[in-house]
């Protein structure tokens, strides 16, 4: 929870904002403008755009551990965590060149304590006392995102997009709000590259943003939103492509505030439409209709850490059998197929089919809780465009449908118009 009267602020700059020295200088000017207002600042940074991919490629080139040795995930983390270390130091150097007291703090120096799941670690604790004392004394603290340290001192990384989570965790530890600067100026009703009439939202609830992030919106990483909601950290999404004026003042803040639902006075029925093409549909044809067959399938998937979303069961042509369809991420599809095929006799099905020519389209809004007819509007809009859906999943504040990939952008535009989002 943000401390009453605090002037602390956590700022986060992503890979695009750290892309080269000139962009780092722009970020430094934004930080300096906030510092001039008397704020105590910690900054979380990503690696330069593309650098993490380069580092991952180097680890791939080095090859896996030889037989009989443990996996090298811990050394993988040592390598890929270095990208954020570089930008932390460069930003601190730049701020010092501007006459500001700045210092970089590595994840192990704070420390940002994580579990030992290398390459996908989860933050367990961020003691805020040392870092808080530093920024309260006037120092600007630069923290590398994406990295932490286990309790026995080994460097870890948090997985793709982990710098957002780092920023929210540091903000929670400091009792501060979190401003995330990125290459867009806020959260939109849908992707403006698909629908030119998309509108920027001034406020979005934590729950809506969590659904958007998990369903295809790429503005924030899902775990960062989960943490912000759990710790009640106010998060603003802002553009990093701004400049202070000649007096060092930033443009009036716009962006999008991610906050508690109670802070949003007028709750929209639908706030956004998202699209995800990272989907694959897997169908088990002729699955035994014994009552424990689906449980057998999904237990195996859970034990292999395969996330399943949409599930549809229908009657098969064969008597005493059903067809079971479910969706996974595309990267998990082949592994899932191999696992199911290897256990075909034990599970008891006739044939497996994979279709990755699909997309998931979702409508999201807290207003769904109290308004009828949301689903009817969705299905009518899709029917009017001749779009057939293959599966459906719902929650209290979202409806998702699986459709043929070729119709994905058409469906987004149709739904955006059907719910009046272009008129917000």
Describe the overall structure:
The chain is of the alpha/beta class and 424 residues long. The protein is built from 13 helices and 22 strands. It has helices at residues 21-35, 51-62, 73-80, 82-97, 129-136, 162-174, 206-214, 222-231, 293-303, 330-342, 344-347, 374-384, 408-418; strands spanning 8-13, 40-45, 102-104, 113-114, 123-125, 140-144, 147-149, 155-157, 178-182, 187-188, 200-201, 203-205, 235-239, 256-259, 272-276, 280-288, 311-315, 321-328, 351-355, 358-364, 389-395, 398-404. Helix 1 packs across helix 4 and helix 7 runs antiparallel to helix 8. The longest helix is centred in the N-terminal third of the chain and has 16 residues, at 82-97. The two termini are 31 Å apart.
Mean pLDDT: 92
Radius of gyration: 24 Å
How many strand segments? 22
User: How far is the N terminus from the C terminus?
Assistant: 31 Å
Strand order of the largest sheet: 3-6-2-1-9-13-14-12
Uncertain segments of ≥5 residues (pLDDT<50)? 1-5
